[in-house]
Amino acid sequence: MAKASTVSPAPALAPARATAVPRARAAAAGPHRSSLEKMIEILDLFEAEHRRWPPEVMMERLSCPRSTLYRHLRVLTNAGLVTSLPDIGYTLGPRIAELDYEMRSSDPLIVNGRPLLEALVQKVPGIGLLCRYYKNRVLCVHQEASSTSIHSGYERGRAMPLVIGATSRVILAHLRLSQLRQIYESQAHEFSRIGVEETFEDLQQSLRQIRKQGYCSSRGEVTPGVIGIAAPVFDAENTVIGSLTLTVAEAGINERRQRQIVEHVVFSANVLTNSLRQRGPHRAPSAEPDSSSHDGRLVPG
């Protein structure tokens, strides 16, 4: 088996931030933005550091006239996507929670991946994660845990950057060259800050090794004291859409045990990929190897 791609622990990683997104989107779209685009910009304002927005601050951030802002806020409020609180401002509304429930009930990545994660964390005590590639960031959409001795920095619904961590880097390794270059150029300061790779060519070489071995492992990059082992998940068109990860306590994990965990993670991710590629009615994937194959693995593309 190829040597695991492991990066030294990096400084504490902050969630992916979207503070500049509405303003950047507004500048790119110019003055003739559609009403839908303007309402999306309002929703983009809500993030971990800014969960409540007074209308006056919204107007300044979005460069939006008062009458236009209140018209869009009325539409969003009627839809339940935002709600207003006296003396506080606007925050996300109850429709968001309703949509979250629908996503957990219908998203094939979650529906097909949940039983696989449940089986995985029963075999190997730890925290299992399903994450999606989303707007040049990684979003945890489901988590299963069988250990209370560790925690994961990838909390459900928390967007994380694509820079470090096995969960993110295994996705990065399977993006198109044009996507990878755009991410490298737009997040060059993040790559430089953590000292992962000095040049784009160095980054390509590192990701080529991850792609060849079919998984990525990291130690303490996102959460100190844990090992993260991740494998990519692909859709029916062989496009990487996310990753399946198992986080385990670093203590007591020797090379032989890590190889065993890698095999479990890669197998589970391949079964999930296979279930997403299948056509027709949904069938819950099996968490056990298929006796008709040698090791139950698929080779993407």
In short:
With 301 residues, this protein is of the alpha+beta class.
Description:
This protein is an alpha+beta fold and 301 residues long. The protein folds into two domains: 64 residues, Arc Repressor Mutant, subunit A (Orthogonal Bundle); 171 residues, Beta-Lactamase, CATH 3.30.450. 43% of the residues lie in helices and 17% in strands. The strands form two sheets. A six-stranded antiparallel beta sheet has the order 5-4-3-8-7-6, with helices on both faces. The chain has a two-stranded antiparallel ribbon with strand order 1-2. A hairpin with a 2-residue loop joins strand 3 and strand 4. Helix 1 runs antiparallel to helix 2 and helix 6 packs antiparallel against helix 11. The radius of gyration is 21 Å and the shape is globular. The N terminus and C terminus are likely disordered.
List the helices and strands and how they pair.
Elements: H1 21-29, H2 35-44, H3 55-62, H4 66-78, E1 82-85, E2 89-92, H5 94-106, H6 108-123, E3 127-134, E4 137-145, E5 159-161, H7 166-172, H8 177-186, H9 188-194, H10 200-213, E6 216-219, E7 226-234, E8 240-249, H11 255-277
Antiparallel strand pairs: 1-2, 3-4, 3-8, 4-5, 6-7, 7-8
